[in-house]
């Protein structure tokens, strides 16, 4: 048994009274409901992030404090924090789903300006038929992936901790309960806007939009740009959210991240990856891959993510129409996706190939690489990492990359084109190209089977795998020779892991 051991120096536990009231909660009763969290019985630490703690201004002793363990597992012990759940609606799998809301999440307030939210700390007025709980397996996945994505540079909500309990929770089978403490500047979703718009609550819609603009997009009140939407702050906000969302999804595609359930209620108004459920990092590159077993139509297949993001942004635009002077402004703001997304993707992919700019020849090379990878279902992460190493010599006699392909001639021809373009366009040495590439093509991503190893061990209260995996994923571009096996191909049993919406 390896419980994460808090440091011994717990003489002066960090005070809980640092919580300040959530700015969102101050919007009032149309937006939030007070909730009483239901504590996890006999909680224990499963995992924690010292990095997130630091961002919240918590000193190194915080995790040794029983008060924090209680606080972060839903035992509401701080009078400064007033837990609340927020109401939102949304489109799920393309269909209007009506009112949803934080059914098992509640915010405790803010620490250093960041909202701290517990997921799994009991039911709320928005739980519908749900039990308000989260299970250990999905909590570990959310915790690890939040921190892994952050380390990859992908905009995301963060995770401070996971606490667990032996209390039973029923899903397809008996599981145990856990609570993730997640952290973000705001958890406002597209669905919050849809909620008030659909209910024709225009005053509340405006209050919400003004809040988001004032807190997070103040530049939208300046009409310096000549863009047709710039004269209306709400259209300008739509353009800003469109840009951030395009950049986020381009980043997902470049690291092979499949979100799995891109409903509008899971889309962050800040362009953060939000609500880690049935997500998956691709092993083999299959653009049609569907990671969510509940997604029978493949609506959220990997290659569809950019289009779905655009569709979701349209829902947001539709919701904002009552605040926008002319529909053309909203359409103009949304149309920028068609520029931002391809440019952001091309830039990311060119960087993965070691180029500084993404001109036409680089774009063609990216396209041919992806076609080759898809044709042979080559491992996505391993391809880029090997290519990064191979680039140090660009020796066509070195089979490191070719070995990944059955059609070796096609691979060889592509490598020749890669080498030619580098030679033609830059005076950088192969070594410096390789170094650049190794800094953007991770050796380690949270493959499904790696998460599974951490989960299986955690179920026996051995949290050492989770801790080691977390340490590797927090630094995914380094070699970590002791854990090289985690950078290898997914084992055959990985294909049998089924991840659904059940969590
Ligand atoms: P998700 O598919 O996880 O994004 O959840 C969709 C909606 O269902 C959200 O409003 C959640 O808060 C709610 N929900 C999911 N699971 C539960 C649960 N176990 N108890 C209460 N509400 C839940
Ligand atoms: Mg959700």
Quaternary structure type = single chain
User: What class, by secondary structure content?
Assistant: alpha+beta
Order of helices and strands: EEHHEEEEEEHEEHHHEEHHHHHHHHH
The major sheet is characterized as:
6 strands, antiparallel
Overall 3D form: globular
Given the structure, what is the number of helices?
A: 15
Using only C-alpha atoms, the radius of gyration works out to 23 Å
Please indicate the percent range of residues in DSSP E strands (runs of 2 or more).
Answer: 5-15%
Beta strand count: 12
Report the average pLDDT across residues.
Answer: 95
Binned, the helix content reads: 25-40%
Low-confidence stretches: 5-12
End-to-end distance: 25 Å
Which small compounds were modeled alongside the protein?
Answer: adenosine monophosphate, magnesium ion
Count of domain modules? 3
What do these coordinates show?
The protein has three domains: 1-187 and 448-503, no CATH class; 190-346, no CATH class; 355-438, no CATH class. It is an alpha+beta fold. The radius of gyration is 23 Å and the shape is globular. The protein has helices at 50-55, 66-72, 136-152, 190-198, 202-216, 233-255, 305-320, 327-335, 337-352, 360-376, 380-390, 408-425, 430-438, 448-459, 464-473, and strands at 32-34, 44-48, 84-86, 89-92, 95-99, 105-111, 114-119, 134-135, 158-170, 174-184, 257-258, 280-281. 39% of the residues lie in helices and 13% in strands. The protein starts with 31 loop residues before the first strand and ends in a 30-residue tail after the last helix. The model is unreliable at 5-12 (pLDDT under 50). The strands form four sheets. Strands 2, 6, 7, 8, 9 and 10 form a six-stranded antiparallel sheet that branches. Strands 1-3 form a two-stranded antiparallel ribbon. The chain has a two-stranded antiparallel ribbon with strand order 4-5. Strand 9 (158-170) and strand 10 form a beta hairpin. Magnesium ion binds next to loops.
């Amino acid at each position: 048994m390896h419980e994460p051991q808090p440091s011994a120096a717990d003489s002066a536990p960090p005070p809980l009274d640092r919580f300040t009231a959530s700015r969102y909660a101050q919007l009032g009763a149309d937006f939030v409901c007070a909730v009483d969290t239901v504590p996890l019985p006999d909680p224990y630490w499963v995992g924690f992030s010292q990095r997130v703690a630091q961002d919240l201004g918590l000193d190194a002793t915080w995790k040794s404090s029983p008060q924090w363990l209680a606080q972060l597992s839903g035992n509401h012990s701080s009078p400064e924090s007033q837990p609340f759940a927020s109401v939102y609606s949304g489109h799920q799998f393309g269909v209007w789903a009506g009112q949803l809301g934080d059914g098992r999440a509640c915010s405790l307030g803010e620490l250093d300006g960041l909202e701290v939210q517990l997921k799994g700390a009991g039911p709320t007025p928005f739980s519908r038929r749900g039990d308000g709980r989260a299970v250990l397996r999905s909590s570990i996945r959310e915790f690890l992936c939040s921190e892994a994505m952050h380390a990859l540079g992908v905009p995301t909500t963060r995770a401070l901790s996971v606490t667990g309990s032996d209390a039973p929770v029923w899903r397809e089978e008996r599981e145990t309960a856990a609570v993730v403490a997640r952290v973000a500047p705001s958890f406002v979703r597209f669905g919050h806007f849809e909620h008030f718009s659909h209910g024709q609550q225009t005053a509340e819609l405006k209050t919400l939009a003004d809040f988001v603009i004032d807190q997070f997009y103040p530049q939208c009140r300046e009409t310096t740009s000549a863009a047709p939407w710039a004269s209306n702050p709400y259209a300008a906000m739509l353009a800003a959210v469109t840009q951030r969302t395009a950049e986020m999804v381009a980043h997902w595609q470049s690291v092979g991240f499949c979100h799995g359930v891109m409903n509008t209620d899971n889309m962050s108004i800040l362009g953060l990856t939000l609500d880690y459920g049935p997500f998956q990092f691709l092993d083999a590159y299959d653009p049609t891959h569907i990671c969510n077993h509940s997604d029978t139509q493949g609506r959220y297949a990997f290659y569809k993510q950019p289009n779905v993001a655009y569709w979701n942004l349209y829902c947001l635009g539709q919701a904002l129409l009552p605040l926008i002077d002319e529909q053309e402004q909203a359409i103009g703001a949304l149309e920028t996706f068609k520029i931002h997304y391809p440019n952001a993707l091309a830039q990311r992919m060119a960087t993965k190939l070691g180029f500084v700019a993404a001109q036409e020849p680089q774009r063609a090379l990216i396209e041919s690489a992806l076609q080759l990878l898809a044709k042979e279902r080559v491992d996505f992460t391993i391809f880029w990492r090997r290519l990064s190493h191979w680039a140090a010599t660009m020796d066509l006699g070195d089979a490191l990359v070719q070995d990944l392909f059955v059609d070796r001639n096609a691979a060889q021809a592509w490598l020749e084109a890669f080498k030619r373009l580098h030679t033609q366009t830059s005076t950088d040495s192969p070594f410096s190209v390789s170094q650049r590439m190794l800094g953007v093509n991770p050796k380690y991503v949270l493959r499904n089977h790696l998460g599974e190893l951490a989960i299986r061990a955690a179920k026996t209260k051995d949290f050492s795998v989770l801790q080691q995996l977390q340490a590797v994923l927090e630094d995914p571009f380094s070699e970590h020779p002791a854990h090289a096996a985690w950078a290898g191909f997914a084992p055959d049993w990985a294909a049998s892991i089924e991840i659904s919406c059940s969590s």
